[in-house]
């Protein structure tokens, strides 16, 4: 079957989109910094270009997040009390510096640990990140507490670079909407959770991969996505939506190139460790399989409310079935929507499905969704509704741990924590719902209101549909659909 050429269809406004002109929440908030973006204002310039503003903003927010961890940095991490929970400043980083042998100079995956965890339970690239930070800590002599502080600081500095890369790549993914990167930079959940664990490494690689896809570089996309998967498992899920969209647009060469690049990069990182330290390499996968129901998941609410227990093997099966059903629904949306959904929309939905059906939800998992939310639904109201739910969950889990770990039972009781979990699930489902609505009703999608198709979709942008089913097969062709939104209507919508 021949590959159709891209269509130009409806005229497009090529100017940079200023959120203060189209988003009522952004417009109201802009009064704090001088008001809306004026008609004669120039978005360029070296000092105040959108990307530079985004980069400086995320650095400032990251620094505020580090200040929020100050009580733990000074004393609460090292006293073994519930204070790190009551101050909501817990981090895995200093604890694992000792608990995973970095303080003793052990090499991840190769040297066996003592206790219940025989080897480091993180993917290979994350383990390398942790090891590099450990090497950088070597020049700092002193007691163990001082070395733990230095290890956290060095990791925080490296993670700040990852945060900047994430925000900047998100800002550059959609050429006309660089200000959407502020959704990432100003996300309160990013500031609060950035230094809990090492998730920002995979996040930065995934954001860079999305940028490469938007620039029609499928090989670079695949390589970066493979590296992201070597740091955290979830980025591999993005290949599913990409397969469906490339199938609908018949862009098999781009997808195959991306798939081979991802597989090659993942193998290049993992095979050496697999060959020389197979038991250590397997630990991450064994731990993920054998881990029981844990904090944050709706499975925990079920077991706590019923008083029953679900074995790890059983919850793995149930979670896979639910994830399979969710993916089937996403596949139906991808192939049956009257207009091909945007890549970022389906990417958000599949990662959200994985998070919601998983048997654990750590507070920092919200980071996985923040850049995708900025690309999929760049509306401040919906984004802040979701972020509010996530911040409340962030506070809820620490207060619950304070309640369960302190003798005086001060904190959030079980019922309150269950409400926090339900709030997190409801907030994520709300954002999923508006994204699905946008996919089914493209006229409600703010990214497409200027006649665009999928500006961050790379080779998918403007491509004709070739394989469709259901309503999509009976709908008008892409050119006819996009032509209904004219430049005049877009100009009216902007006022």
Automatic annotation (TrEMBL):
InterPro entries xrefs: GT87, UCP010361
Extract one GO cellular component term from the record: plasma membrane
Asked if the record carries the keyword Cell division, the reply is: no
State the Gene Ontology terms under molecular function: hexosyltransferase activity
Q: How does it sit in the membrane?
A: Multi-pass membrane protein
The entry sums up its family as follows: Belongs to the glycosyltransferase 87 family.
| Listed name of the protein | DUF2029 domain-containing protein
- Please report the organism this UniProt entry assigns to the protein: Streptomyces solincola
